[in-house]
Amino acid sequence: MRRDRRGPPPAWAAALLRSALPIGQVGEDIRGDLEAEYLEHRAPNGLARAWYVLEALKIAWHYRAGLGVSDTAQDVRYGLRMLRRIPWVTVVSIVSLATGIAASTAMFATMYGFLYAPMPYANQADLLTLFQVDRASGSEQYISVGNVLDLVDRVPAFEHVAVWRSFPTTLTTGDEPTQITRLDASANVFQVLGRSAALGRTFSPDEGLPGDRVGVLTAAMWERHFAADPGVIGRSIEVAGRAVTIIGVMPRDFEFLPADIGLVVANTFALERASRTRSPVSAVLSLPPGVTRDQARTQADAAWNRLRTEHPDALERYDFRVETLREQFPGESDTRLVRVTLLVALFVLLIAATNVASMLLARAEERRGEIALRMSLGAGRLRLLRQLLTESVVLAALSGVLGIALAWFSISQLAGIWPPEIPDAFRPRAHPSVLGFSVLASFAIGIFFGLAPALQALRTSGQRDGLEEASRRGSRGHRRGHVRTAFVVGQIAIAIALLTGAGAMTQLTRSIVDVELGLNSERLLTFRTTASGARYDPPGTLARFHRDMEEALLALPGATGVAAMDELPRGRLIPQRRFTIDGRDTGDDGQLPETQMLSVNQAYFRTMEIPLREGRSFEASDRPGAAPVAVVSRTFAELHFPGERALGRRITLDGASREIVGIAEDVFHSRVELPGGLAGLAYLPMEQHPVRDVAFAVRTTGDPLVLASELRSTVRAVDPLAAVDAVQTLDTFIEREMAAVRVMGITMAIFAFLALALSAMGTYGVMAHGVARRSRELGIRIALGAGRASVVGLVLRTGIAQAAIGIAIGLPLGLMIQGATRGIGAQFRADVGGASTVVGVAVALAVVCLIASFLPATRASRIDPIKSLRADA
Amino acid sequence: MTRAFLGEFEQMVLLAILRVGDEAYGLEVRRELERAAGRTVSRGGFYTTLDRLERKGLVRWVSEVPKNARRESRQRRFSVTPAGTEALKTSRRALITLWDGLEPVLED
Fold first, then answer.
1. B87 to chain A, minimum CA–CA distance in Å?
2. CA A100, CA A107: separation in Å to the nearest integer?
3. pTM of the predicted structure, to 2 decimals
4. Mean of the pLDDT values across residues A484-490?
């Protein structure tokens, strides 16, 4: 029977109903009736539960409408009226609080997307990745095909492992060859990730054998290159000159990491079966039901150890590691950066909230008369507390609404500069939990920062005083003033910490963006192209392609030089390579030195205007078959040949012993992260070390973009199937690569400015209110002959004292924060400043506070004694 | 003692209790009400009306476990007090007086 299968009603709704209903038989009876009806409800389970929740809410509403809710509505109306009475204070409070909420919400959204947003796979929690770990350096590497396939055979829990590898290639169907990113994956890839095609089908288990090429398009590629034509299914497209049959299109939310994949082709990797140290692939495992991560790990470790004894030469250097898929992204330093930014944003929010609390406190003092009157007329203490809290919550809620609108805008701005290789799923967006964060933050602030002022207003001892004040204002309330002073002091302290932190971060991003490149980036037109397909398999064809391209490009009007390289400066991270120095033992720990490696053409150094310190550049004689050579960077020479002459020495890199024939000045080639500072860089001649995916940079005499249109036809003339991608000047390229970092710096600068402005506002508010409160006393002083200067001095002294205490607390805090950022700074070769910077910040803040107190002070000196005394009579 | 008139819904609830008789538990009364009125009756409104009628002294209840129980817990069995019956009679009289002579206007 249906009734037996029905579970209990939703516990939370039942609990809510219980709390709303009268205690005892009446409440029990009503709940019992509803539950009985729920159990007999004929709708399916889910609908019945929804019905129960709805009915419970309706009953609760009926029972509470006559009691609490109407009071609250009244409080809200009253609160709004009070806020309207002091429009300026209200507007300033709301705007500052909204800014704080917006800043922290936007940062929370970024952090949520970055660190926690799930990947668009059905069973994300059960997806693990397999890595090889280099024992010497501890660095994770993609696992080799042979090792994965062996593990799959031996580990029962590894039944569902998908492997894949992405690489750039050229789509040669259509009017013009286009560069795309292709992913070769085992046929079970979509099954492991738990996703099916939106159109057509995904791979069947027997697909992907050599010679059989079927592909699935991602939605982005389908829309961009095939105009979202459903007829693409079954069509044969040409990729790097080879036919691939399209069998399906994935849904729009489906993504890989990296996210810029256009085409997924089935591949058994059968030809790479024997490879244990090369042929790296991403390997993703879907845990079978009932197998825990630890069980899988134990099984895999045992299998790996057996594998290592079988292949000691290849695997001696490697350990094996299993991680969750989501742990792959982001890296450690990005995580830290995002966390620091959120922290800074929360500090801004804290300062804003302190301002509002301070304002509410001032208001509470002004209203002591009113409150005392109401209490003596019989208003309950709790009732009044609730009303006062409602007011601060209303204020916070208004700020929250504005803050969320602001946050929404900022989030869309942040999302706009999202790099294409990071999945869309990780993009900052106004997710429900993000919205929840801002709503929660607003209410928490409303209650928490409204509590102190409300309690202040309700102090019993104040009842008589309050009544006195209701009829006659006096210069009382010194003790209450202390709380506000404490707020200002705290605010100044936080502001110092925040300004130091934000200042350091701004400095950091600035030094990342504006780093001395070591080359001339002006008037350089750059683009990428890929020599794809079997056409370039025969030896020598690739080098010939590069030479032909160079010649054709040099013939463009205004071109004075053509550089070719596998990666543009500040582009993708160049992987570190191990090498040995000939004639030198590796260290005691057997650890090999590492260097970045770049393949460049002869004209590279001249065209990029990178000076050579010693030796020579590459020459026509550095051909394949000739003695292998290398040019190294100055840092390379200093790191690996300290106090020695590097020129003429030999290193073994990428499988060949190479003579160092030249030493070039340093170039900042990396995008951002360089553990341990600028790394050494070894250049190999492209002729001896050809690459398929290559970037060209053409030095021009005039505006480089003028050549852009001719560029395509020039490249086409060399190879009709070569795609021209990302045509732009080097400056533009670097600017785009740095956009995210730059935005980070700007955000930090905005936060710092907000902190400064908000604390100035807070100081001003407290001082102005203090002067208003003391107007009677000051009036008497002036009446008794105190000079204007002495009155100004009197008020200023208070302000200075507050600032001094705040700075005394804030200085050590600032130094601490600076210490924390110094570590990150060193990694990016950025100077975050020393103690003098923190002191400078403190001085600046002191000046701002002084100005903020000066205005009320001059106002105090203009108090008309007659008026101020009469007002109190 | 002047007594306020019964609201329409209050009258209906009282009448439904009388109609159900010995088995006048909340659920049964509301079902009778829905059957007679030909529409659904809001639970919240129904229970708060019962509470109000109880406060006015027109309804009382005893707590007991029903004889042919759907559930084991104790439930409230409602009955109309003599004051309740009296109020219904007053209402009825007033309404009948008001209806009187209006048949030509109101008849379908």
1. 24
2. 11
3. 0.65
4. 81
